[in-house]
Amino acid sequence: MKKTAPIRTLILALFLAAFAATASAQLQIPGTSVSYRLNSDDWRYIRTFEHPGGGDIYLYCYVGHVVVDMEGDTILPFLRIFVVRDFDGDLYELAYNRYEELPYQAVNEYSKGPGLPASGGLGYVGAYTNPSDQKGYQFYMTYFRDRRTSIEFRLETTKDTFGEMDFEFQDILNSIK
């Protein structure tokens, strides 16, 4: 009997690890057909609030492990989903409106790839320096439509931790349906 106990423990541990790896569920943006997946162990929902210019913002923070930048500061990478209902402009207009709120440098622009549906959209890898802390930040930002709703996904962290977070960011972007 003693020999089978470690085997049972190993089998149970493997089962739990496999279950935990598949435990993340597709989340739905209310009022849309858009869904996305987060690793439930690594991301935490923070809150939903209304954008002053209209629309809803859903905010998540990465807590999977401590992310520390080159200056030794603890960084909280985040996901922000901005949902604008009945936006009459095109995606470039929405992207420009968002740019005016917080100017950034577009490092790369793409129309096919992570976070964009096959039917089209607009994506950026962008960067900016925050004037309050003088840190450089880098992000993925995608824009696309679901019927008359425009949606922005923004995944951001500091420039020097962007490479560390890229796999997490790509995983979320690739899960958008």
Describe this structure in words.
With 177 residues, this protein is α+β, with helices and mostly antiparallel strands. The chain has a single domain, classed as Protein Transport Mog1p, Chain A (3-Layer(aba) Sandwich), CATH 3.40.1000. The protein has 3 helices and 11 strands, in the order H-E-E-E-E-E-E-E-H-E-E-E-E-H. It has a 7-stranded antiparallel beta sheet with strand order 3-4-7-11-10-9-8. It has a two-stranded antiparallel sheet with strand order 1-2. Strands 5-6 form a two-stranded antiparallel sheet. Strand 9 and strand 10 form a beta hairpin. The N terminus is likely disordered.
Number of domains: 1
Q: Evaluate the radius of gyration.
A: 19 Å
The topology string of helices and strands comes to HEEEEEEEHEEEEH
Please report the first level of CATH classification, the CATH class: Alpha Beta
Look at the helices and sheets and give the structural class: alpha+beta
- The 3D shape can be described as globular
Could you give the distance between the termini? Answer: 49 Å
Helix percentage range = 25-40%
Q: Strands across the major sheet, in which order? A: 3-4-7-11-10-9-8
In total, the number of strands is: 11
Poorly predicted ranges: 1-23
Strand content: 35-45%
Mean of the pLDDT scores? 84
